[in-house]
Amino acid sequence: MASARRAVRKDDPVAGVLEGFGIIAVVIVAGYVLGVSGVLGPEARRVLNRFVFFAASPCLLFTVLATADPNLLVSPLLLVAAGSALVVVVVSLAVSRLVWRRTAAQGMVTAFASGYVNANNIGLPVAIYVLGSAAYPAPVILLQLLVFAPAGLVVLEHSLGGGSVLRTVLLSFRNPLLLGSLLGAVLALTHVHLPAPVLEPFRLMGGAAVPLMLMGFGMSLHGQRVLEPGSGRRDVVLASGLKLIGMPLAAWVLGGPVLHLDPRTLDAAVTLAALPTAQNVLVYASRYDRSVLVARDAVLLTTIGSLPVVLLVALLLSPR
């Protein structure tokens, strides 16, 4: 299987990109069909989002981090991922907060949409079939789970009126996503390996997170127009532009002229930066009812728009 995957990348990187995006498209369409049919009832999307937020995603994050190699945190890819994300997040927050005077929660959702990449359910297939290894997205996934998501969720939690920032930080530790991530990270850093019978129930439940997340996203598209009036069109355009253009460019500058990465690592770094906004952003926005339409439209537009961007990166930077 590994040799076949490497062959796909070497002979036709375009085919690998199309395969990675095709996987997610099928599940999103299935969710859309369910939404159109109405067989799950009017509250189906809300229930799916709550199940993903409170049960499936925490289990997935726990198992991913608990079995991760801590050495993955020390990687040139991590520096590029952190730096490029920081650039677009700072720009996004500056425009949202200082120019457009958005609230902190609204600005945070736009920042999430600008720099939180879909390194899992799109990133993994693309890494396997385009970059030749599933290990490339791991540092990005860990960075987002351990740094980006907790920081943003504290801001969103504070928007619910949790009192002081310190109180909000303390209350945020009740957040199931943070708990799952922290517990998994502690196990990985302390080199504690849970027995398979203990870990398997969490792995089984976590396996439902990605398909349900994608299906919930597909259901959210039913009866809605992208960039409709009152949906925060400027915020969507800002987030999508930063995600599709700003972040890959920042990754190329950091990985090339600044860090002088080897061609294969530079290709991986820019490809990962060009991935679309993660569906997690819509889950977070829906949970806290903040800028939901901005998150939904940014996820959709960047998922569509990132395909030609990733193809372009593969054609320009892929080592021959």
Verbal overview:
The protein is an all-alpha fold. It has one domain: Na+/H+ antiporter like fold (Up-down Bundle), CATH 1.20.1530. It has helices spanning 2-11, 13-37, 44-66, 76-99, 104-115, 123-131, 138-158, 165-172, 176-189, 196-206, 209-220, 233-258, 263-273, 280-288, 292-317. The protein is globular and about 50 Å long. Residues 1-10 have low confidence and may be disordered.
**Beta fraction of the residues?**
under 5%
Topology as a string of helices (H) and strands (E): HHHHHHHHHHHHHHH
> Taking Cα atoms only, what radius of gyration do you get, to the nearest Å?
19 Å
The counted number of beta strands is: 0
CATH class: Mainly Alpha
Please identify the structural class as seen in this structure.
mainly alpha
CATH topology: Na+/H+ antiporter like fold
CATH architecture: Up-down Bundle
Question: Mean pLDDT, as a whole number?
Answer: 83
What about the largest sheet? none
Shape: globular
Low-confidence stretches: 1-10
Tally of DSSP helical segments: 15
Please give the alpha-carbon distance between the first and last residues: 21 Å
Helical content stands at over 70%
| Number of spatially distinct domains | 1
